[in-house]
Amino acid sequence: MVKMAFSKNSAKSIFESSERIAKMISTSDAHEKSSKLRGVPPKYALPNDSELHHLHAADPNVSYRSSFFRLQIDTLLQSICDDQEGLDGLQKLLFDLKTHIESIDKQQVTEKLLQVQGLPIHNHIKRKEIVLAFQKPSRIDIIGNFILKNSIKSSNNALVIDITVEIPSSCFVPKDFKDFRYADKRKLYLGVLVSKLEIMDQFVESAHLAPFRGEYEKPIAVVRIQKEALRRHKITEVDVQLRLIPSITMDTFKLGKLAPSRSNIRHCAAADSGSLYQTPLYNNAILEDMMFRRHTRELHVAMKSPSFTEACRLVKVWVRQREFDKEIDSINGFLLCMLLLYLQAKQEFSAEVSSEQMVKVLMHFVTTLDFEKQSIAFTTAEDGVEVTGEGMRAFQAAFQLVFLDSSGRYNLFGRISHAAWAEIQMEAWNSLHLMQSESIEDFRQVFIHRSKIWTRYDQFCWIPAVDAADIADAIHSAEERHDILDMGLERFWKNKVQALLHEALSNRVTSVRAVLDVCVEWKASDAVPPSRKVVVGLRIDPANAWRLVDRGPPNDDKVECVKYRQLWKGLSDVRRFKDGSIVESVVWDGLDEKKHMVIDRIVRYIIHAHYPHVQPQSISSSNQYIQTALHIDGFPSDLAAPSNLHIVFSNLCKLLRDLDSLPLQISGIIPVHPSFRNTNLYPLQQHPLAYAKSETIGSIPFTQASTVLEPLTIHLHFEKSSSWPTEIEALQHCKTGFYVNIANELQAQYQMRCAVATDCVDVITTGYAFRLVVRTERELAVIAGAQGPRKLAILNSPKYIETKRETEYLPKHANKIHALSTRFTAFGPTVRLLQRWLCEKCLSNSLRIEVVELLVAYVFINSSSTTVPQSIVSGLLKSLRLISDHDWRHFPLLVDFDTTLDKEGRREIHKRFDASRSSPSTHPALYIASDYEDMDCLSSWTRFEPERVVLQRLVSMAGQSHQILLRWFSRGCSSTGWKQAFRLPEHDFDAAIQLHLRKLPSKRIQVEERSTCFSAPTYKNLDLSSVPVMIGFDPFQMLLSDLQSQYKSIALFFVNDIKRDVIHITWKPATFLPAKFRAIASNELIPLPQVDGSGDSVRTLAVPNMFQLLSEIQSAGGDMIESIKLKISRR
């Protein structure tokens, strides 16, 4: 027997804490460990992360990337490897288990005698009872990862050992491969083993049943060894879990009878008794039990290469991080290892190449392999059968994918479906692209980050499980009944749902992927778990997804029309369209303003129409409930609600360009308000008080309206001129003159309502208030006019950065975000949803709208064509993951809208980021650089906020919400489960300023009577144009800004911009540390008692007077503040 060992110093699994590995990689400890791992002295070891940063700055070539990639792989392998040392007692433990199993007496076993409820017998032909003549196993072998020494740590950090228990051939008769008799006897044999293990109290902690590769009809035993038994065998550092897998020898049955074209299940219905249908999956499952030792021997030969062993571990990590091994029709680590073995046998790579090169070759092979056009097979072994062309065609006709092992009989990919392979190819392509790119963060995307199915699709639907009685009425052919017997009811139902939705949704989606809910273990004394629900993942095509009419075949194509009507079950009708065509079509009425719900409507209708036992209300959707997060009381709730903003804006632009009395001609009119780019949290409505007297107001559905209007900022650019003043004050006066001139012209020529201020002019027309702001090319030059040493200080001053941001960056930012919003229909709603999340977490004042847009833009820009979010759910998930997973401390976030940043540009940004890190007091905590920013003014939107402690809070909350949403998906998308991700833990705050809402204006246009002082009636007989209004008046924001500027050094303030009823306060950690008393701030300090045993005078220490501070805040807020409450911290 091969010696078995395991590391005493086993660390936590990377699958529980991937961040630990990322941190390990970026420390000098990882540097030392990597040196030991590769067996080289420290001075010749790979450079650490700090050294690599400097190397990359000096020479950003491929050697830098490959060295760092190798360092990351070494660290990952060291963390996940099951070191087989210090487990000498395990060998005796396994021999003890073998002895106990072999001591089981011969016996006749039936279902009644066994009385194991968890192993029901199929007994397909019920003429006589199934009887097993039990005998002890003919052999017991360790197979798989442990014996091959390529295992990785399990998610629960237990040592998992696969053991085959070979059932003697004498337990079967030659025809037991027919009609489930082999499966029934296999269950009876396993039941005897489990019954024996359950009474071994001194050895076994628990013995459960589990599905083998997701199939409940093919159970195995999972045995967990008692800790006391492990200690007796001197195993103290690890738990041991054994998986007992029944197997048979290749001579148990005639192998020719198990060919894919053979039928080994007879029908029950007399009418179909003469029909013969092939049973490839049934036959392949029996062959599978014969091949365990064969495949282990073949892999064992290849494991002599250390690189091959490493590659096997890496692909197992890759599979597990994507959870393909949890899907019944997808790939697992063993199959990818066999694919690596196949590539090595075909000399695609040699045993001497590095493990990462092997993985790249594998990913490229998976990406390019088209199983619809070709099949693959190992070279036939001596005891195998040569596969002829006709034989291969038989496999291709029976299976969706064909990958034959060396026996020439068993299809390794027999379970895998085309939809699963397409999903695997997509992930392989993305991984290969990341591994070949130059970003050192891409390693984490490939091997560290989890990529569950919930992150790969845009929308999910949960279809209830079915049983045989439910689906019997919907099955109309003997072939379908036979398919249920061949593949099992769960897989049949999953395939039917997937095929039906793929046909019904047509080009609305680019991919439909149906998977079964997660499988679970069960006790032998309990019933088999019920049938699992079906989860359908949809990848949406936004160009076609939201249409309300499905056009079918032409009316004169009778055959296709009949098929189309059968698909839609009476919903289809013949219609004539404007282009003159007469076609079968389906119209989805009532969704004109809810187009985002059309896919949900189709899924519910088509499933219920074909399978009436599935009620529409029993089908849940991820899109159905979380969409309500965008519905804010008092604002339009429909994403598709029409808006006249762009029409009104276009008319205003035409009027402004026609103003010929201005000293300079207007050269550019740039809308910079978020509403113009569809990212404003509050959907914009036409305000009844924002009309001129000459304009017509439609019907007003409410009687009270807010008198505060939100201004829509527009930048005006004039033709170049050398006459602009060169002093700040004179320049401002000149711009004010332009405002007066514009207002006079608009009032005189077009009777518009205008309000002039020193820094803008507000134009009220057709329900909107537009704020015109003049921007000139002279502004930055006026501010940065200094020379010499003061030049650098001015360029880094808040005033210069703010001016550059508003004059140069904001128009560019607005244009790029508008283009992105037009390109991706889900972009705007995702930005709005992320803003809603920030509001609910009381982080509204922490991130500007431009920062939120940049974060979401990075997600959309850096996603491939197959992974770009096309729904708000997937957009929010990816945005939260970006916030929580990005290493903000060591790396900047580069948002390259137009892919204009070349290698030199990116390297320059990294150099400036590293230089900025050397000054922690001025270094932005959230460093986001975009391609429209100049190198001397990067990260302008986050230069001064958020603070580092606020960023830590943001990252923590984003990670928690991301996990909550993933759990919500996995548990069926309940109607309220998603709200947990938006819930605020208020005990995190130290104090709360309760605001008097009646004293504050509302952002809503419609207000209730007496709910606020800032309202006016909107009766028909009133001249609404004469009602005084305030534009941009926001006392809430003024109060918040005053508090932040005055108490920035001692407190943090958090608000919910939607409710605006509370301002939460959190004291900074160093606020109440004793400091030297200062007379100038004595009103805000409390002196501490002097303690000095020597009697000498000492400098008095003091701490802030919290009650005095709160009293000052109360005075500053005046009538706006209703009360201030202190909270008892639970931290």
TrEMBL record:
The keyword Nucleus applies. GO terms for cellular component: CURI complex; small-subunit processome; UTP-C complex. One of its GO terms (biological process) is tRNA export from nucleus. It is found in: Nucleus, Nucleolus. GO terms for molecular function: RNA binding. Gene3D superfamilies: 1.10.1410.10, 3.30.70.3030. This is Nucleolar protein 6 putative. It comes from Albugo laibachii Nc14. The gene is AlNc14C37G3244.
